[in-house]
Amino acid sequence: MASNNLLIVESQNDKFFIERLKQEITANFEVDAPICCISEYECLDGLSKTRLEKKLQEIKVDIDKRGLNRIGILLDADDKGIDARVKLINDAVKCIDNNLILSAVNTWYKSEVLDIEISCHILNVDGNGELETLLKTIKSEDSTFADCLNAWRDCVTHNKKEITDKDFDKFWVNIYQRYDCCSKKDKKQAGIKCNPEASLQKDIWDFTHPVLNDLKSYLAMFD
Between 1.10.287, 3.40.50, 1.20.1440, 3.40.980, what CATH number should domain 5-128+210-220 receive? Predict the structure, then answer.
């Protein structure tokens, strides 16, 4: 049976992660096609208001057809912070309801124009970061290969180069998945068996970690 609740996410990896996390909680929603398609290199410099507006306008057309009751918006805090992301969401939702204001995360707000409830949540660790920051925090297996990247980063910095926290966390998670947590046999098909989709189904993450409590509470609001 199709859900009448829809969750908007930024990337395909966000979709994989949320669908895996759903196995740990009771929640009733469908994850929509991601805003950013990695294969098309969208949103490499962060999500823009224009792209979120486009997604919201696409969904608005189908609200009645799909019988939607609730729409959730899940974005990464990145280095912008939670407040800045909530502002981006509020600026974007004006394209579908000029009177709608989402004053806080994890709260449903009724759009009288669309006869639907809308809410948002910002993925973060201590106010910043993104999915990979969360994954790095909840890793549950030995991460020697990935942790050795810290020495590499020190070398990069020493040579007056830099890598952003966002790019470093992505690199860390990729190495953890492929070199710390993928068997020798699976590495022969690493593109299929060591990728984010496959890795999120493995027992290499602690889905009971308290850093996920706020996100779990939000997703449970869809039940």
Answer: 3.40.980
